[in-house]
Model the fold of this input.
Amino acid sequence: MLQRVDYKTNMMVGDQTYPAFELRNILDFIASQLGAAAKEEVCLHIGLGHQELKHCQFVYVWQVEYAMEFLRLQGQDPDIGTQLGLSYTVSSLDVLLPHLAQLTTLQACLQFVVNHPRLVGSFTDTLMRLEDQCICIRWLNTGRIEKSQYRFQFLHSIGSLLGLARELTGQAVSLAEINLAEPARDSQFLAQATGAEICFDSEYFEWRIDLSWLSLPVVYAFSDHQIAASEVRAVSFIDTVLSVIRESFPRVPNLDAMAAHIHMSDRSFRRKLAQLGSSYQRLVDQVRCQKAIELILANQLSIEAIAETMGYADVSHFRQCFKHWIGHPPGYFSRLNRHEIHK
Done:
């Protein structure tokens, strides 16, 4: 069973691997909504052809992000992310199928999704908690993704998870509530598609599902071919950098030292990260933010002690940095353990 608050550092960026089924589904949706020429344009930019993609199990995060951003900007529909997610089918999930075939309930499927971001794909960190007979999934933008892009990813995630849950269980699964950190707009489609109460002007992006849905059995009939799928992944440059940052934390090497550690010039190192849509400071801040949230939610140290553990001599400087990283002060997460977060 879930803990009251369960923090998952699932955010993936740059050349970290992402399941190829996601990119195939996005490209097919782009073709259906914007035409074959639009799909070809995206393929040309990401350097991956249709035939090559058919045989891939994993691609890069930046390739999936580009396709999503193309759809968001060209589609010009606030609900297009949800529509994209709802278009997914279980049979398209490729590398996930042998794992899903071993799961017997919707709760087991949800737990698998949050525990295996490398297989499922994830653009965000999450907080899971039990509250009022619901499981609540709150997205944390530790990577400081631009809000409209983050919103699209959030709605896409809701659509895909809900559509696949319905197909896996054969039931009209619905959500209890969706909180959006955006001004009020027409929410008729989103409410009808998800069955949820839609709340705007929230401080966060979050969705809730009633526990009763999670006890539903998985009834989808998996084929022998689907169950026999295998996994092959590429080595990620960003994984290497993040690994060194985490292992050396809190004494994080500066950019020059990191470049030397991985046998690159500082200029080549900067350029490589820029090509992957990131920067060294952004990766360092991501790790610092994740570590700080973990320490706060552990509820064993004061904010002053956490600041010292994180390598900050001045607690006020730590508070400022923390708010810069995630948009909220440290106390915001301390209150989660006391159920004082404003709904």
Q: What stands out?
A: The two ends are 23 Å apart (CA to CA). Strands lie at 5-8, 17-19, 58-60, 125-131, 134-140, 177-179, 197-199, 205-210. The chain has a mean pLDDT of 89. The chain has two domains: 5-15+77-227, 237-338.
